[in-house]
């Protein structure tokens, strides 16, 4: 039965006020992702350096489209909130769903119909409550067509409505809703649904990293997460600017900080600056390397280190191995930038790659109180 127009308007208004009030409660995000394979025990996370911690990743079942937690992770996930709150009782936790290794086709299929979206939404809320998380984070990498983006918007709107209804019914504080998104407001010319994001998410985590890597930019060294990159639009600043210009409020944005870097193999050990000729990965595997491993590499090889304040990136080199990454200088500069631009905050992928919490402390200190 359709509601009378006046009642429908009242319901819409109350829902909007609820959303506005809840969003206003988020004054800053100093976030960090953790995942079981990082090598860092949950009990070892220095949660005092964060306002929000993301537990990654819950899975999306390709048949039922329900959100699930693998049996191998269930024990750590179920006690995650309790454990990190021992050092910081005020830290908020979010269950993150998906991730870079998840099949984007599964997310596309899930979002394509209201019934499968409902399976996702209902199961995600149930899991968050059952495991004592304060919120949910969607990491769909990435909606890649106009249809995907339209469905993504529908998913977010329905998710918010369901979360608001669950809060009203249970009497509990509404769950936080966030999403990890591409570096800019369009994914290779396919625009994100800005209005749905603005209305339905508390904020988005802008993945302002992985701009370059030896697997997809193998012919020269490059800054993997440059804050500025004047010759191109591939930079953190360009990405944040695109989101704001698209109509999303700065207070809905958190800037991504990579706690890892990428290693290239130099063609000439004596030509070792930015944009130097290179040929593929400088280390075993795909070239990705955690900050803690980078610090070990520098120490063990007597590597030369450079901070480029124009681009805002760090790099080091020894022999033919060249690594682009963020050290404390880059992190501090980026966090100062985020605060100066009026952003909600920042987040890191991932806390297990930090080195004695040096990057986390630099970020926390740069933002200040």
From TrEMBL:
A Pfam family of this chain: Glyco_hydro_18
Keywords tagged on the record: Glycoprotein, Glycosidase, Hydrolase, Signal
Signal sequence, start to end: 1-25
GO CC, alphabetical: extracellular region
GO biological process entries: carbohydrate metabolic process; chitin catabolic process
Molecular function per GO: chitin binding; chitinase activity
Domain GH18 span(s) in chain numbering: 28-369
Family note: Belongs to the glycosyl hydrolase 18 family. Chitinase class V subfamily.
Name by which UniProt lists this protein: Chitotriosidase-1
């Amino acid at each position: 039965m359709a509601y009378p127009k006046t009642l429908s308007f009242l319901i819409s208004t109350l829902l909007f006020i609820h959303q506005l009030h809840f969003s206003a409660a988020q004054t800053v995000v100093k976030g960090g992702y953790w995942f079981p394979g990082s090598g860092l025990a949950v009990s070892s996370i220095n949660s005092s350096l964060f306002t929000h911690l993301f537990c990654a990743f819950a899975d999306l079942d390709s048949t039922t489209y329900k959100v699930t937690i693998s049996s191998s992770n269930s024990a750590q996930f179920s006690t995650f909130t309790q454990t990190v709150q021992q050092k910081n009782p005020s830290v908020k936790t979010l269950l993150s769903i998906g991730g870079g290794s998840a099949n984007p086709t599964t997310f596309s299929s899930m979002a394509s119909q209201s019934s499968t979206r409902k399976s996702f939404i209902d199961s995600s809320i149930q899991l968050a409550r059952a495991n004592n998380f304060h919120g949910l984070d969607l990491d769909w990498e990435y909606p890649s067509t106009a249809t995907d983006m339209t469905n993504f918007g529908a998913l977010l709107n329905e998710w918010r409505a369901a979360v608001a209804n669950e809060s009203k019914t249970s009497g509990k504080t509404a769950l936080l809703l966030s999403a990890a998104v591409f570096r800019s407001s369009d994914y290779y010319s396919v625009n994100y649904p800005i209005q749905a994001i603005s209305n339905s998410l508390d904020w988005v985590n802008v993945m302002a990293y992985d701009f370059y890597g030896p697997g997809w930019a193998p012919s020269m060294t490059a800054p993997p997460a440059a804050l500025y990159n004047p010759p191109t639009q591939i930079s953190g600043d360009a990405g944040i600017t695109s989101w704001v210009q698209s109509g999303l409020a700065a207070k809905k944005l958190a800037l991504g900080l990579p706690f890892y870097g990428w290693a290239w193999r130099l063609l000439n050990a004596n030509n070792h600056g930015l944009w130097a000729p290179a040929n593929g990965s400088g280390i075993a595997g795909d070239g990705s390397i955690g900050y803690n491993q980078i610090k070990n590499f520098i120490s063990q090889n007597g590597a030369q280190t450079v901070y480029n304040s124009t681009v805002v990136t760090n790099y080091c080199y020894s022999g033919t191995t060249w690594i682009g990454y963020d050290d404390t200088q880059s992190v501090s500069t980026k966090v100062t930038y985020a605060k100066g631009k009026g952003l909600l905050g920042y987040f890191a992928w991932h806390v297990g790659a930090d080195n004695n919490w040096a990057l986390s402390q630099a970020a926390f200190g740069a933002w200040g109180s």
